[in-house]
Design brief:
The protein is of the alpha/beta class. The protein has 8 helices and 10 strands. Helix 3 runs parallel beside helix 5.
Length: 268
């Protein structure tokens, strides 16, 4: 397989590499249009365990659809998706919902919190649903995360009483509440200013450093430069990938310049 499909392995045979997430010949066509609209076309892609993968491309290239199909939020019309070696495309809706709850975490551009619950209770809810017999353990884990991400002081606030950056850090806490194997982020900084974007990306970089696998869709080169690898989509297909290596703050400008040059080569 080529580097477009697979993460860099430093010479390791891909047969021994551990893929957290893998798609093979993935397709998505919407038949509600006339003629039908093919949004994803024959995508092969692997995300290694512990990798931070960013997906970029022009509007309409299929970035979010790819994330939805890989995470089971939408069903592909062809191909397969495997999570840690387990085939997902044949699961029932109920089985897939359980996988999303217990093995995946999600961060979106909008936080989608319940307005009648506090910040802490919004984060705690999925943990209680995943492990209803371990309320004490779930609560302790959530409190530790609130401290870790610097929002313990707003834990009892309503969601309209905190900043956008605090809400997205709360979203990261909620996404990690069930200790997922893969964290999906769809334009997680799209609604934030530059200061809040840095705040949220620092938090995500910290999560990745601790070993969490992340797949992030973004239009922001500064955010994508944090990733180990960037995949570029055009017209529903993967056309290229750029290995970025391990993120370090001191190399932020160099990494972003390198990525921007590569993106311009693809007409971004």
């Amino acid at each position: 397989m080529t580097s477009i499909l697979n993460p860099p392995t430093n010479g390791e045979d891909m047969s021994t590499a551990s893929a957290a997430l893998a798609a093979a010949d993935l397709e998505k066509t919407f038949y509600s249009t006339d003629p039908p609209t093919q949004v994803l076309s024959h995508i092969d892609l692997e995300v290694a365990t512990g990798e931070f993968l960013a997906v970029m491309g022009a509007s309409g290239s299929g970035k979010s659809t790819l994330l939805y199909c890989l995470s089971g939020m939408d069903k592909p019309t062809g191909g397969s998706v495997r999570l840690g070696g387990r085939e997902l495309t044949g699961l029932s809706d109920g089985e897939m919902s359980r996988v999303r709850l217990t093995e995946m975490g999600f961060i979106f551009q909008q936080a989608y919190f319940l307005s009648n619950l506090s910040v802490r209770d919004n984060i705690l809810l999925p943990a209680l649903k995943a492990t209803p017999k371990d309320k004490a353990g779930a609560g302790a884990r959530i409190d530790a995360m609130l401290e870790r991400f610097g929002i313990a002081h707003v834990a009892d606030h309503g969601i309209t009483q905190v900043s956008g950056g605090q809400l997205q850090r709360a979203s990261i806490c909620r996404a990690l509440a069930t200790e997922p194997s893969v964290l999906f982020a769809d334009e997680p900084t799209g609604a934030l200013n530059s200061a809040m974007t840095t705040e949220v990306m620092d938090a995500l970089s910290g999560v990745h450093t601790e070993g969490t696998t992340i797949m992030m869709v973004t239009h922001d080169p500064g955010c994508a430069a944090r990733a180990d690898r960037v995949v570029y989509l055009r017209d529903g297909g993967v056309v290229d990938a750029l290995a970025m290596g391990t993120w370090t703050p001191g190399e932020a400008t160099r990494r972003e310049d390198e990525l921007l040059s590569w993106l311009r080569g693809h007409g971004f």
